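Researcher: Please translate sequence to structure tokens.
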Amino acid sequence: MPRASVPAPNAAADVTRTARQPPTLSEIVSSNDTVRLKPDATYVNVAVTPPTMGLLKRLIGDREPPATPPEPVPYPVMSAEARGVHEAFWILLGRQASEIELRDQIREADAGGEPALLRRVISSTEFRQAFAVWKEGRSRSDAGEAALSALGADDRFVDRAYELLLGRTADPEGRQHYVAALAAGETRSSFVSTLIRSEEFAQRYRDLAPDELFVPRDTQLCELANPAKWDNPEWMTLLRDLKVITPDKAAMHRKGYEFTQLVYGLGRLGRLGPDATVLSVGAGHEAVLYWLANHVGAVIGTDMYEEGRWSSVGIREGDARVIARPQDYAPFPYREDRLMFLKMDGRHLGFRSHTFDIAYSLSSIEHFGGLTGAQAAVDEMVRVLKPGGILVLATEYMLGGTPHEEVFQPADVHALINRPGLRLVQPIDELVYRRYEYPVVDLYRNRFQAPHMVVQMGGTIFTTVMMFLEKAPI
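Model: Translation complete:
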């Protein structure tokens, strides 16, 4: 594009922007009392006044930018310790060590030798990112290659790369091969890439940083619906696998939490397997039933499945047609011979004692007739569980406001699970919402609002409490 000129001092000028990006400071050069843009640079609405001109001069000086990139800096004169750090940073990280890094790493090398430096660099997040670049076959920049080329003669560079990356002296055949390849024109970046992508380096990396991708995560099972689970990669994999719940953190929902926490907890407890038998009470036709059918031996979903409240609202969880045509409600393909729906009162289960490995109910038993009805359902689920079986309960937990007949207060929750022969696998974390600021979703105003972890029904504020309990063995 044509050069944009700027009027002399005491006048302002606007340069109309094109579709290109604004220039960096290095693209703006000053001479006398004018500011000139490089021929291929553009800017938007620049008002240049005498004070602005003075600021630009102080920032960028009066010199024209160099016409060509500078030549690689010769190998610097430095101590042996500093040279070691300098080489490690360029070979392992692809960049120059800062003055502070150079100082600190020299001190550490003095205290623990070069192995301490290598462990620190190789264990860093920065190296992990650089390692990923190498593994993908991407090359470093021209500046990075120029810096590697400045690290001494080819034979010394090969020796140094072996020491830093493989932790050993180069074998004679390998040394001869790579020195010859470099002399024939192979880039040093390519040579470093070859070593980094070798199985020998991969094993060394695993030995030095065995858990380099593992970030601490929340694994609590018995708790109030916990937003921290959206930061657990294993838990999020299960959420995505359920397919019907969006994994978007901003759209987190109690129901998605309940489904995912159920299968996550059963997996953590080692209870999912091809021979496991599962009973769901107040099942509706929830997606998690179909997921379980693909992962265990048998699943039976029970509910009242009658006309009324749950057969006519939302997604019609109480729709009796699921009994005859469960495939019509399936969110994804499933093993149809592993899943059955039955009309049954959760307070009077029609199964023999000691039948199931797992029994669960998700946000249903609070509708069974208050605490007394919910306790009756718990007792029945315990009865049909095998000794050592797992009971999983999710129900409404009151956080504040006025009491409601279908929302349990904390004392009621503990009374619900304080049944003979039943124990929590771990204490319940009831402090989740003392750690968080959170929005409260008014169910009467807009039940679709998200995040949907804490809700309000009239004057009652509540969330989900999730509990994993084990039936005593005989």
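Researcher: Any highlights?
Model: The chain has a mean pLDDT of 82.
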